[in-house]
Amino acid sequence: MGAESLSEQRVLIVDDEELMRRAIRTKLSKEGFTCLEASCVSEALTQLKTSPVNLVILDIKMPGRPGTELLREIRSTYPETAVIMATAVADTQTIVKCMKDGAHDYIPKPFEFDELLLAVGNALVKSRIEQEIKYHLDYLEQTVDSQGKQIRQLTLGSFEALVMALEAKDEYTAGHSRRVVKLAEAIAVEMLLKDEDLDNLHWGALLHDIGKIAVDPSIQNKPDKLTKEEYRHIMIHSQIGPSIVEPVANKGIQEIILHHHDRYDGKSFGQETTGEDIPMGARIVAVADTFDAMTSDRPYRGALSVEEACTEIQKCSGTQFDPVVVNAFHSICHYDSLFMEGKLRTGKRTS
């Protein structure tokens, strides 16, 4: 977002603490934003009715009606308005609920101004992308109403472009989703999955990390070991992703995205589904995702060799991964030269 556009961005700061509102207003105003203030939900609603804004910075806990109620009303009545939730309480469940209800980001109090400015910029970009995709979908529905499949493919393609753009910004994740697709499809072919399941698997694998648009980049790229709260923050991407693709993705695709970090033994954070109740596509993506992550460089470690990664996956058979999927994965390694320096070459049997 260029500097020339900042003066056109209107921000509503909703917080019962006057000093907090003024501090945020002073900082953002210096960056060219036009800022309004509200001390409670009712005052914020009045402001929104009379003065439309591009972004709301919303405190979760306030006297009277909480910010979570206002969030739902904003997303329902003013869908083009981005929302950042601010909280002094590290309640992961509340944060997850806010993201599911449509918040574009959240920022914990107290925060550094650079963190706030990054969150504001990211939220405005995410909101703009949402509106572009919605416009694209509405236009297609009006002009090619009889071509529902084409609409779905084109819109899923827009999501694909978004994922690729997000990954391209990070040298550690560039190309990750496409590699996961190839490996997941190779495993599925070995397991003789039906064509309709393969189609869902393709899109589920490709879009499995789309929820990371809501993940703080500084945490995702942290060079040190994550804290428990930081890990939980990153894991919310699998819960947010399905709501992003819901307008065009069927339930099978959404379930792959939702469950791709579920452990076979049920011991993942916040997990409710275990074993064979986890969708097969998600169980396949779990193996493919982990293999590619292990054989790629990360900020906190170098890439493992293919042999080391395969050995680690075998060790986790029956605990983290479905043994049937692990067996199919290792069968591929044995009969085909799928891996050349950690890169997947093909997705089909060659002999």
Short précis:
The protein is an alpha/beta fold and 351 residues long. The chain contains 16 helices and seven strands.
Structure description:
It is built from 16 helices and seven strands. The protein has 351 residues and is of the alpha/beta class. It has a five-stranded parallel beta sheet with strand order 2-1-3-4-5, sandwiched between helices. Strand 3 (55-59), helix 4 and strand 4 form a beta-alpha-beta unit. The longest helix has 31 residues, at 113-143. The protein is elongated, with a radius of gyration of 22 Å.
The structural class is alpha/beta
Count of DSSP strands: 7
Kindly provide the radius of gyration, computed on alpha-carbon positions and rounded to a whole number of angstroms.
Answer: 22 Å
Fraction of residues in helix? 55-70%
- What is the average of the pLDDT values? 81
The low-confidence runs, each spanning 5 or more residues with pLDDT under 50, are: 336-351
Distance between the termini: 51 Å
Taken from the alpha-carbon principal axes, the silhouette is elongated
Spatial order of the strands in the main sheet? Answer: 2-1-3-4-5
- Helix-strand pattern, N to C? HEHEHEHEHEHHHHHHHHHHHEE
